[in-house]
Structure formats: structure tokens, C-alpha cells
């Protein structure tokens, strides 16, 4: 258990990570030192969750472990706050652990802006909000094995964790973080097709969601190659192969491949 836990930017993703930590007892509620941008948000979180939430980041930087979850354009401001806390003698001792969930911000940049901290770069995806997430981790060389295990334990509370070479995080982000948006478009399109074929909208949406969820579960639990599942439901001259023919003519496969590549390239450009 860490005695105090700083959160710089207690937004939606940071909350999704913090609540399981509290439930698991890895962090005490009284030990949380959180920061948000507005006093209205701070007051709301204090009242709803009995947390120490402020708009001044100084208290958060006194913690030995800090989760950095601000917007990427706020990174320099956060770094100045950490430096000011160190200059005032109120920051955590040198060697504190900084866990960043900022998209596209490299370990090299984190270490340059937060030289007194041992940095971890994490790439969680939106399904972490319902504890069905995927998180990619890359750790600076200075992070010891014990701390790496603690960070893995943190993110394992909201899903599956993969420690990767940092060079692979852009591809990981493109598939797992951008992927939910691509899947949402597929779900929407499937539901639209069902509506066009005669189903009520609400039922079509539910059936599309359940079809995607059930298919993913079957692929994972039976450890099937996607082509195997496709062949399982494609009878000669049947309805499924007729639909697949249309998907191939429309270029769905190529469009999805290019979408993942474009997202990865954009992630590299942002870095």
C-alpha cells in the first residue's frame, strides 16, 4: 500500500483507475491527493467521493507515486508545478514514481521534464471504464522490478496488461485505443443495416452490440483465428458469404488496415 497517491488530472480515465485501487486497498482514500482544473469540479468530487481534491497541484507532488493524466497540451504546466514543488522542498524525495497516461508523450520527454522521477508510460484504452481494458506499459530503465510489478497490478485491476518496448506503443495505441472507435462505427453500421432490413432501431442496436461481444468472446475463449470463425458461419451459396462478398467489394478489410496504420502514424507524429 502506498501512503499517499497523487493524481494530476482527475478526469474520466484517472477515476477509472483510482476507484479500483481504493477498492483493492492498494491506496487509502485519505492518502489521495488529486488535482483538477476547476474549483467546481473539485467541489463536486470532494462531496461525491470524500477525496482531497484541489486545483493547486502542490499537494499531489508530495506523494511518492503520481498518476499524470492531464491533457497533453497541459504537460509543460504540470512539469512546472513539479519543479516548483521540488524547489519549495515539498515534493516527494528524488526517485518518486510517475505514471503517465498521456497519449504520444515519450519516456524521453517525460524524463527530461521530470528528471527527479522514475517514469512509466501507460497506454490504457476506454474499455478500462468498465474494467475490460487493455493497457500497454513501457518503463524507464531506472524503474525497479518491484515498482514495475506494482504498476502492472494497478492496471490489471481494469483489464489486461502488456509491458512492451516503447517503440511498439504507437501500434498498440492504434489498435487498442483507437480501435474502440473503429468497432463503434462497425456496430453502428450493422445496426443501420438491420434497421434498413426491417428491425426496430433499439433492438437493432442491442443485437449489433451483442453480436460483436459474443463473436469476440468466441474468438478469445476458443482461441480461434478470425478466418476460422468466418468459415464456421459461411455456408456455400448462403447469406453470410453473400454479405462477405459485399464487404470485400466495398473494401472493408483494407479500410480497417489503413485506419490502424493511420492512427499509429499520427501517434508517432504527436510524439
Task: Label the overall shape.
Answer: elongated
Residues in β-strands, percent? 5-15%
Distance between the termini: 33 Å
Quaternary state, please? single chain
Q: What can you see in these coordinates?
A:
Helix content is 53%, strand content 15%. The protein is an alpha/beta fold and 271 residues long. It is elongated, with a radius of gyration of 22 Å.
Output the keywords.
271 residues; elongated; alpha/beta; 11 helices; eight-stranded mixed sheet
Topology, pairings included?
Layout: E1 5-8, H1 12-24, E2 32-35, H2 39-49, E3 52-54, E4 65-68, H3 75-87, E5 96-100, H4 107-113, E6 117-124, E7 133-139, H5 145-156, E8 159-163, H6 169-177, H7 179-197, H8 201-221, H9 226-232, H10 239-250, H11 252-270
Parallel strand pairs: 1-2, 1-4, 2-3, 4-5, 5-6, 7-8
Antiparallel strand pairs: 6-7
In short:
This protein is 53% helix and 15% strand. The protein has 271 residues and is an alpha/beta fold. It has an eight-stranded mixed beta sheet with strand order 3-2-1-4-5-6-7-8, with helices on both faces.
